[in-house]
Specification:
Layout: E1 2-3, H1 8-16, E2 22-23, H2 38-56, E3 66-75, E4 78-80, H3 86-96, E5 100-111, E6 114-126, H4 131-139, E7 160-164, H5 167-171, H6 175-184, H7 192-201
Helix pairs in contact: 3-4
Length: 203
């Protein structure tokens, strides 16, 4: 499988399922279009990354399954990117405190001449956070390279009161939905662990 992403979290999630990966990150313009919603944006970017990756593949890799993804954190229809500085991280965390926000991942798959794409959205509700808790978390440094100023797989898990939806989507890739899409696209024994799991569904 060709992973059109440099995300170590996505690489780890797919490797845990038994996929043999070739990592070929795609660099495309990620500027939102005027009036584009967060879900429309991640879907467009995932498709764009998949197409760019396919176009740049060397001959020996052409025909392999390409998976591309893009994830965004958003609250009240506003995207929350990576904080510019510690003050910006505090601002984001105060805004999310006690509220429910959303994490959407767009996924695009290109396989054997077929293309498929989808968006998965999970809802995350934070506890009410005190200024001291926010300051302590920001001082850990973890928020600084994370969209929404937190990482749910790290210390950021302590901020979360409730999740509705796929946890792994929040990490960066909705793997359960992905493997079902691959099955529908004709996944074969080249993905041994995937097929073993899917065979169990039909037993």
């Amino acid at each position: 499988m060709i992973l059109a992403s440099g995300s170590p979290r996505r690489r780890e999630l797919l490797s845990q399922l038994g996929f043999t990966l070739v990592v070929k990150p795609s660099n495309i313009d990620e500027t939102p279009l005027p009036g584009e919603s967060p879900t429309e944006l991640v879907l467009r970017l995932a498709r764009g990354k998949a197409h760019a990756c396919e176009k740049d593949l060397p001959p020996e890799l052409r025909g392999q399954t390409v998976v591309a993804a893009d994830t965004t954190v958003w609250f009240r229809d506003v995207e929350l990117g990576k904080p510019a500085d510690t003050d910006d991280a505090r601002r984001m965390l105060r805004a999310l405190s006690g509220h429910t926000h959303h994490v959407s991942t767009g996924v695009a798959i290109a396989r054997a001449g077929e293309e498929r794409s989808f968006v998965e959205t999970s809802d995350v509700t934070f506890y009410e956070l005190t200024d001291a808790q926010i300051d302590s978390y920001v001082s850990s440094g973890e928020p600084m390279d994370k969209a929404g100023a937190y990482g749910i797989q790290g210390l950021g898990r302590l901020l979360v009161r409730e999740i509705r939806g796929d946890y792994f989507n929040i990490v960066g890739l909705p793997v359960a939905r992905l493997v079902r899409e691959l099955e529908d696209m004709g996944a074969t024994a080249e993905e041994p662990l995937l097929c073993k799991i899917l065979e169990g569904r039909h037993a």
